[in-house]
What we know:
Layout: H1 2-17, H2 19-39, E1 44-51, H3 69-78, H4 81-87, H5 97-103, E2 104-110, E3 113-120, H6 123-142, E4 154-157, H7 167-195, H8 203-210, E5 214-218, H9 226-235, H10 240-252, E6 288-295, H11 304-314, E7 319-323, H12 333-339, E8 353-357, E9 371-378, E10 393-399, H13 405-417, E11 422-428
Parallel strand pairs: 5-11, 6-9, 6-10, 7-8, 7-9, 10-11
Antiparallel strand pairs: 1-3, 1-4, 2-3
Helix pairs in contact: 1-7, 2-7, 4-6, 8-13, 9-12
Amino acid sequence: MSQQALDLRKSLQIIRRHKRLMRVAVALGILAGVTYVVVKPAMLTSTALIALPPTGSVEAVTTAGATDPFTATQEIVAGSYPVLSNALPEARPAMSFNELRHNVQVASPGPDIISVTAKGGNAAAAEATANAVADSYVRYVSSSQSAVGRIYAELLQSAGSATGSSPLKRAIVYALLGGLAGALIGAIAALVIGRNDRRLRVRDEIAKSIGIPVIASVPVAHPPAAAGWTKLFEDYKPTAVHSWQLRTALQQLGMARSGFGRPVYDGNGSSLYDDGRAFMYDGDGGRSSLMVLSLSSDSGALALGPQLAVFAASQKIPTSLVIGPQQDAAATATLRTACAAPLSEASTGHGLLRVTAYDEGGVDMQPDTALVIVVAVVDGRAPKMPDTTRTNATVIGVSAGAATAEQLAAAAVAAAADGREITGILVADPEPTDQTTGRIPHPARPPRRRLPNRLRGVVTEIRR
Length: 464
């Protein structure tokens, strides 16, 4: 039962994940239902009643609900070829014999009475067809050509007051049915697509794919142009939850700790730099640096590096965001354009964020820069590390549902071949239903076997 519940939950997650497909399928189903109502309008029905002679009413009802043989025979005669063929000239609209047989139904609502019900596209057509068949039957059984002998039947009630379902009501019903059918087809298609989709979506799957923990997962912006990147540099403000995750990520990477990036002064109270600021760096006396590596096919993950840089600057850490040479230059074209424009004074970093784009060689850093974040993008199919600035640490940025385990592993291998060790994973736009953490548990240490105490001596006692 637990396995079934797990499969059902996973199936619902797959369907929820393909909401766009479901919307399209439901919309097409509703459109198909409404189109059917327009192309095949509702048929109206009208009924004519014929009274049989009293001689046929002896033991009219033999058993409960059973028609007497005489009336049953007349029902067959009313729907026979001679009657229907003679009614064809007066049936409306003009139709073939098979169409007339399909549109006419003969029944017996009571003893010595038969009914002729006809369908038509409008009230006049249904009434004319029903009356034509009823009149043809009366003429046929009253003539000498009758196969069942001459019977003096008469028209009891002419067809009139054609009835049928309301067009609006019928359209609503078929639209609902079409929508349900579309939802079913969409759900099946989503499950088929989802079952064959190897892209990683939950944090645990992403972490296990390359054996590296997820250190933060945050929603990201998707700027379509350079103006959008500029707005991100100036206005990005994560929520409290995501601020804590980004802060924790910097701490785990050794780039944000107590006093990091804050001004320090010499023993005389003078700053170490002319502008009055000096900043604490890492233990070896140099600045900290981090590369955020992502795939060119994952446009969402590109924003992880810039957002992390803006956040670091908002924490009073002088930060430089560097966009260097890329394996896929088109992936960072708009970002590089935005880096060329100066930031406004009202940016989130309060003057502590600098953005730089360069094509080759190194990049000059300000002496007070405490943290450098480098954005690197590689091709997911054949990743190759670009010739960019070396950093102290490297993390992989990936959006939920944007990469497979093979693509992440290939990127990690390319980084390792370039002498860069992957120390963590940043997840962009995590799944709302993902309850996993992406933490890699440490292997349990084998229990130590307790050694026996050394036996130092044996006391013996001899009694006499």
